[in-house]
Specification:
The protein is of the alpha/beta class and 339 residues long. The chain has 12 helices and 12 strands. It comes from Sanguibacter biliveldensis.
């Protein structure tokens, strides 16, 4: 039986070695090291086995324990690109911390969106009888579920699949858009532009809905002329700056931090100061951008860490899994100096 310890001859330490040293049967050693419930073992025998285990450096064969229990101490996480995405990588961090808290280890497979690699990764995890699988994408979207995921408990993280029957946990995009707009309203701004993305997504529709609901709650009519779809990057923000200035807006809510970075460039070229002339708020809290712009960018964070942690809790039954609609996780504000 393969172990982490080795005998004096270099061979793996086995239960038989432990039994020989402690003067008990192999079955007694098995009961002690596996902490078998109801096993009737005297205190002295248990002590001798434990001392022999420590002296020899014996480690149980994890695969054998997995096969006997029908499950393992592993949770799988299959992702498209989040392991290589700085801010979305927090999903892994959150899932890993939560898994460890409950005595599980996270097995991560980053597939780079390759379907064949994805199928192989899921098959490998099923062969190792993982407790379940978290399936995640690096941005919030609807997905097509790989058929193999229906062979084990699965939670979708930062993605969803209507009609699949699989529980999902996603960011609350509408609440995030409302929070960003409310922050600008709280600073006295009444004419607020919104540079939204041209890319269809839950973020596009949800953040716009939040923007509109915050204005409505403040008694401000929605003006479609203040909303401009732009490319979701620095170039899009830079191109949209003229629209913001020409609209007479005193503040702008940007679809993401990269758009906000472009707005910074455009306003600076026009000799306008942030936040004195135009206040700016972003979305995503990409620290490499938001914390290093001058002035530092106020934004709304995507709750990637909590998405990963919540996915593990749902998988393990610590939190109930939703039946129909995805569970929404709040997007918190991160206030700096641009508002």
């Amino acid at each position: 039986m393969s172990t982490a310890g080795s005998s004096k001859h270099g061979a793996p330490v086995t239960m038989r070695d432990v039994a020989r040293l402690s003067g008990v049967s192999v079955s007694t050693v098995s009961h002690v090291v596996n902490d078998k419930p109801g096993a009737r073992i005297g205190k002295d025998a248990r002590r001798r086995v434990q001392e022999a285990v420590e002296q020899l450096g014996y480690r149980p064969n994890v695969l054998a324990k997995t096969l006997s229990r029908g499950t393992s101490a592993f949770i799988g996480l299959v992702a498209d690109e989040i392991a290589t995405t700085p801010f979305a990588g927090q999903i892994i961090h959150g899932a890993q911390d939560e898994a460890w808290k409950h005595g599980f280890v996270l097995l991560v497979a980053n597939t780079d969106g390759n379907a064949a690699v994805e199928d192989d990764a899921i098959a490998m995890m099923l062969e190792h009888q993982v407790r379940g699988i978290l399936y995640s994408s690096w941005y919030h979207r609807e997905i097509s579920v790989p058929e193999a995921l229906h062979q084990t408990d699965t939670i979708l993280v930062d993605c969803f699949a209507h009609g699949s029957g699989l529980p999902a946990v996603v960011p609350d995009e509408e609440q995030g858009g409302r929070t960003a707009t409310e922050e600008l309203l709280a600073h006295g701004h009444r004419r607020i532009a919104f540079l939204n993305t041209t890319t269809p997504s839950p973020a596009q529709t949800g953040r716009l809905a939040g923007y509109r609901s915050a204005l409505e709650a403040a008694g401000i009519g929605f003006d479609p002329a203040l909303v401009l779809p732009v490319a979701p990057d620095q170039g899009g923000g830079y191109a949209g700056t003229s629209h913001v200035v020409d609209s007479g807006a005193s503040a702008v809510f940007c679809h993401n931090d990269r758009v906000a970075m472009g707005v910074y460039d455009g306003l600076r070229e026009r000799g306008l100061r942030i936040p004195d002339d135009v206040a700016v708020i972003g979305f995503d809290n990409q620290d490499v951008i938001a914390a290093h712009l001058r002035p530092t960018l106020s934004t709304v964070a995507l709750p990637h860490y909590e998405l990963g942690a919540a996915g593990v809790r749902m998988l393990l039954g610590v939190d109930p899994a939703p039946d129909d609609e995805p569970r929404l996780v709040a997007c918190p504000p991160v206030l700096r100096h641009s508002v």
